[in-house]
Structures are given as C-alpha cells and as structure tokens.
Amino acid sequence: MNFRSSLFVSCIALTAAMGPVWAQEEVPAEDQTQAEQPAEEAAPAAEPAAEEDAGPQMFREYQPPQTDDNLEGIADPLLGSGGRERTGTPMQPEEARWDSFHGQVNGQKYAPLDQIRVENVGDLEKVWDYHTGDVSDGSGDLAATVWSATPIFANDTLYLGTPFYRVVALEPDTGKVKWSFNTDSTLEPLTQPALKNRGVSYWEAENPVEGEACQKIIYLGTMDAQLFAIDADTGEKCTDFGEDGVLDVNQWNTVNDRFPFSLLQPPTIAGNHVIIGWAGKDWAYSEAPPGAVFSVDPQTGELQWAFQTIPDELREQTGTANVWTAMSVDEDLGLVYMPISSPSPNYWGGNRVDEVPYATSTTAVDLETGEVVWSRQWVHHDIWDYDINSAPTLMDITVDGEEIPALIQATKMGFLFVVNRETGDDVWPIEERPVPGGDGSVDGEYYAPTQPFPTKPAPLLDQAEKPEVWLPADIVGAGSCSRLFDDLWYEGMYTPPTTKGSGVLAYPDSAGGVQWGGVAFDPETQTAVVNTSHITQYIQLYARQEYDSQTGGSGNESGFYPQEGSPYGMSLFSAFNWLGMPCWKPPFGELVALDMTTGDVKWRKPLGMSQKFGFYMPESMGSPTIGGPAVTAGGLIFIGATMDAKARAFDLETGEELWSDQMEAPIVANPAIYEYNGRQYVAFVAGGNSIIKDQVGDQVAVYALPE
Amino acid sequence: MQSEQPPLGSGVIILMVGAALGIAVAAYYYFVPLTGVNGTIGAGLVLFSTVAMLIAAALMPLFSSKAIYMTLGLLCLLDVFLTALAGYFLHEWLLIAAMVVALVGVIRAISRFSVIHRHQGARV
Prior knowledge:
The structure holds two protein chains of two kinds.
Chain A: H1 3-8, H2 19-23, H3 32-35, E1 110-111, E2 125-131, E3 145-147, E4 152-154, E5 157-161, E6 166-170, E7 177-182, E8 195-197, E9 201-204, E10 216-221, E11 226-231, E12 246-248, E13 268-270, E14 273-276, E15 292-296, E16 303-308, E17 328-330, E18 335-339, E19 361-366, E20 372-377, E21 393-399, E22 402-410, E23 416-420, E24 430-434, E25 450-454, H4 471-476, H5 480-487, E26 504-506, E27 520-522, E28 527-533, E29 537-543, H6 544-551, E30 560-561, E31 568-574, E32 589-595, E33 600-606, E34 611-612, E35 615-616, E36 629-632, E37 636-639, E38 646-651, E39 657-662, E40 672-676, E41 679-686, E42 699-704
Parallel strand pairs in A: 1-36, 3-8
Antiparallel strand pairs in A: 2-42, 4-5, 5-6, 6-7, 9-10, 10-11, 11-12, 13-14, 14-15, 15-16, 17-18, 18-19, 19-20, 21-22, 22-23, 24-25, 26-29, 27-28, 28-32, 29-31, 30-31, 32-33, 34-35, 36-37, 37-38, 38-39, 40-41, 41-42
Chain B: H1 10-31, H2 41-59, H3 66-90, H4 93-123
C-alpha cells in the first residue's frame, strides 16, 4: 500500500469520535480449563415477584429478583416458570406489516413479501425520494443531526420522525406529503452530542369509533422528553393525551436529575400500551437518573406501570441502566423484552459494588403489569459500557427436533445470546467463565470473577486474542501501532480498565459488535442475519487530581470524560497511527448469516467499503457499520449501514451482493419494506451519523420493480 | 542550443483533450449529487489535478526551452498517474479512461519534442 492510498484508511479515524455517542444512544491461559468446562446448571426457576399494588396507576417499587445466589457479586439468572397463559395474538404477524421501528414488535425485520426476489432485484429502481429539510452538519448554530429513523408504514401512509422533531406523513407510492406536524421542540442537544431521532410509533384502536379523532395515533418523542400524540389521519394533536396532546415524561425524572430524559427512540407499542424508555448522558456523572421504563395509556397518556431497573438502596448512588433502544414484545405470551444498559459511571463501579441484577441485561416483564418474569444479566458488574443496545429478536426455532420459542440478544461484545423467550432458559448452554481481575491500580473497584459466555452461536468477533497489529499501519506509523499495543493490557474480553501504561485495550469496545439495528430473522429458513463492527479502542482511568490537571477540569473534552462524582476520570481513544490508520487488521465490519436450527454460521463476508475524503478502501476490508438489515420472503437481505452510504441487497442463502444504489449519507437505520396497491417497496433513510462518518443527510429513497 | 518554439503537436492536443475529459468527469463527480464522492476532498483534488494538467499542457508549446518543456511534460505524466490512481480509489472509472487518453498524449508530446530537438540539434 502506497502513501496516498494509506490516507484512505484514515476513514476509520472517524470512529474515534464515537465515544459517548455509541454509549447512548480471553480467558487467561491458566483459566482455559475452567472456561471449557460444561455449562453450569441453570439456577432454579423463580416465581415472578408478587404483585404488591394492583392500582390502576403504578410507580412500582423495585422488586428484587428471587434467585439462589450461587456466585457472590454476580446476578444469577432469574428464570420464568413457563406455562404462561397465551392471549392468542400470534407472535408472527399473519400479514405483511412494517408499523414499528423494527418492522414488527417481535423485532424480526421480516417482510413476507416476494415480489422482489433474487432473480429480479437487479432491476430495482428508485420510484421516489424525499428530503425532509431537517438536517444540520453542525457548522452553524445547530448541532449536527443524527437520523436513524426507520420509516413506518401504517394506515396506508409512510410516517417519518425527523431530528428536528417533526412528523412527516407521505403517500407510500409517490412520496407526496399528506401532512406534517412540527413539535416546535427545543433544538438543543441537551443530553447528546447531536440532534437525534429514531422515528415514530403507531397505534390504532382495536375497535375504532367512527367519526372520532385519534383512533389512530402517531407518537414522537423529543430531546427534552415530551411525548407528542398526533392523529395519524389529520396530523392534529390528540388533545386527550397528556396535557393538550403532550405527555411530559420528564415529570418522572425525580432522582439525580442532572440531565433531562431524552426520548430519541420511539416508544414500543403493544395492545393498549405505549412503552417508553429514555436516553441520557453517559460518561459524565457517577450519580445519574436511575433507569425506568414507563407504560402509558395510548389515548390519555395515563401511567399504567413503571419498571425500575436499579435496587432502591442504590438508586441515589448510581444511575442509568436505562432502556434507550427499542424493545420487543410477544403479545401472545404477554411479555415485553427490555434491553437494559449499564449503570453509571460506565468505567468505574466502586459506587455500585452490590449487585444491580437488571443492569446490562435482557429482562422480560409482564405486558399488563410491568412485573419481572425473567431476567438474564449479560455482563456482571459492567465497567465497560457494554449496554444491551438492541431489541432482542423473537423467533420460533427448531433445535434437535424441538420447537423452541426463542429470542436472540445481540450485544456490543459480539456475543449472541439465545434463550427461551418464555422462561429465559438457555437454548444452547451459556457458561459462566472466569475473567481477569484488576491489576490493583484502581481503588474501590469490584471485579466480577466470571462472565456469561454463549457456547453457540460463535462470537461475531474473536475477543479471546489481542487483535493483530495491521502491518501497513504499523509501517506508516513507524512502529507506533506495535508500541501502543505492547503498552496496552489485554487478557481477553472483560480485561478491566486500569490507570497503568496507556490503559487497557478494549476489543470490542463500547462501539463494537452489534448496534441498535439488531438481528433480522427469516422464519421460513430460520436464518438470522446481523451486521457487526470490528473496532479496537483503549480505555484509561485517571485519578481525579491527575484527570483534572491533564484535561483542565471535568469538561467534555474529546476522548476525555469526567465521570464526575467518582474518583476516576477516563479517556477512550481508537487505536490509530498518526495518520489515522487503524492499528488493527481488517475487516472492519461484516454481514453474518446464522442457521438458527444449529447455531452455526452459514456465511459471513465483509460489508461495504470504508471511505475517507471520498476515497474508498478495498471491499475486502469492509466498513464499520451502524444500522441494520431487513429480510424478505423473496430470499433477500436489504441493508445500508456502511460508510460508503450505499443501499444494498444480498442473497440470503449465499451472501452474494445483488444490487446497490448510492444514497446521500450513510443509512444508519434498518430499511422498511411494505406493499401498497399490490406493489412491493423498499424504503431507506439516509440520515448519517458522525459515529460512522462525518456526513449527514435528510433523504428518504423508495425502490420498487418497474411497473 | 534550442532556439525555436516547439509546434503544437498532436501529443499536446491529445493531452489537452484527455485533461479536458478528465475535468468534465471530475466536475461531474464533484458537483452532481449521489455520485458517492460529491463534495469530497478527494473528488475536489482530482478536479484540481485535471485543471492543472490542462494548463500545463497548454503551456508546453509556449516554451522553447527543452528543460521547461520536458519538466512540464514529466509533471503532466506524474499528474496523469496520480489522477488515475486517485480515480481508482474514488471509483471514477471514466476518469481513468480520460487519463489513458492523456497518457497517450503526454508520451507522444514528450517523444515528439525529443525527435524535433534532435533534428534541430542536427541542423546546428
């Protein structure tokens, strides 16, 4: 690789700036024997906690999980007993629908449509595109926009939320505007480094009253936690909802309210419930608002239940462990599945050495009451900001001849945990394996002695070994990459943060693995599809005095974050040479297909191309990815997610790329697939995200076969 | 000693045509939306390099000095290679085609000048 071409790889440098944006939005050799031991026996099933208050409005007290405490300091699995009464609402919709963030509330991102197939996808053409006008590159008065909205198709309309907190309703076949609604919300990035939006939600009454307004409602949240309810037909506010059509969700921000809640992720809608999580400000504070999820009435906004994620006695001294991404729902089982993030501060846990069982977990709660039915903690005592960041994907799979109601939980760590979605029990064994403890440099810290490791599917990236130094980057950097890697501590995943040397190598880092696009699933072939990133960063802790002297105070300097209230500030940087070339070997991102009957990888391939200054890197290197896939009965995967801002279609069976088209910015949302008047459409939103590339957009492009 | 201004040979004309084609292609990729590189530093760079190539090609016949003529020719040759290389990484395939035309021109211009210079040298 010559000097000029080496510039091209500096595109990955952009991922250095991903830090807090990603956030909110190996076993040691001597332990290998233990690590390879068979899976530990599952903890005995626990009954759901008893309901304490059956009132219509419930701000429920934290209910500690009832488990046998097998390992000190580790939240053991809380398993459901099974045998739940079923409502008869199928988990798998019988008709094509794309009326929620992941297409369906089961999180499958699956369209049972086959007009567009492997044989004809190459003929796909753009039938319309639309620019919202709600875009900022950050050079003016407004912060940059980050637009990760998946359009939703409902009520014969395509609905969009924008990062300026407007709703736009479009005709699905022409893109003509039906109506738009402006919340006139603040355009200040109160909790985020950018103005963000991930779309809108849709609800319709089971028995609509003819002639009455707001029988079909669109919901849009704002940066300052105002949830707007808008009539899906007219674009007028639903005045019965909250106060004059607006619910102030921040009214429930009453503990450590250092920042307001932000409603960037559209609520999850199931039955007569609008289920709301919130985003906050990571890495800044030790004590922060404690995580909670709220269910409100779709027409009035009245609180139905609230689920607290942090034990009562810890709520003042820590915080977050919130749900900032989408949730999934099995309406048949009456369960809501919550991907819960890590507690604060993110890289030091001396203030929360007691168990926080629901932190960094997938927790299933009863749709009607909010009571916990089962919970699996995927990272014990999380000090790496490994938020569970995507809605689990629900699926019925056949393993060894047994039909299992399962879910798959993708993670930042690159692990895919597969459990029975009724009970939380393992489908393939999930083992507690020993992980490295601290090096003694960090005061007051506790280190979980083990962490959960799935035995199947295989990790999406090999975290057992220190990533290899990429020779071209090392040469261009005059050996700086080798020196950096030698100075970074790494004993496999879960090597804890340190103050020593240049810190600890984080692979994957908090930006790595899978992001909020989650896993798509084709129920016909029982194939799961997921995109993943390979990013190497390094974390260092600084004693408070040293941090303040190094950074000039507890500001929010690039790469340095204060963790105010804890004894340690921290820094996080991507591992680059002086030219911005990544120090680790490519690929930087991949698309992976898994056979969910066996848990084996069907195929995997580098996804997209990295790009910097316009220059493309070779396809074999792939691109870091944000966004996610969608799959169809036509045997296709549609996905954007890459730095090169291309929409692509792949053969689900082979992984062969069959079609692509250029968009104006990276597609950092899942595509939407819908049928209208007998024609199948695929919609992509090109909004961009500075995490992946410094390029923003406001484009919606919709494709179909020629008529 | 070189004493005559070199004629506007076919090599220079071909080089100018290649550079002009390169400008057109580079401008298209830079200014037209959805080329994948529109508005990028890389696309701007090749637009600049092709304009520089055209100017250099236009200047070549104006200099009677072999040293200047050859220097301009070699700079154009370097420009052609680097622009084509950049075009490869920018996925501007038509730019590479334009640079092939320019390459033919610059080689012809350099070699033709050498021939003329030898003939003139023989007359002196």
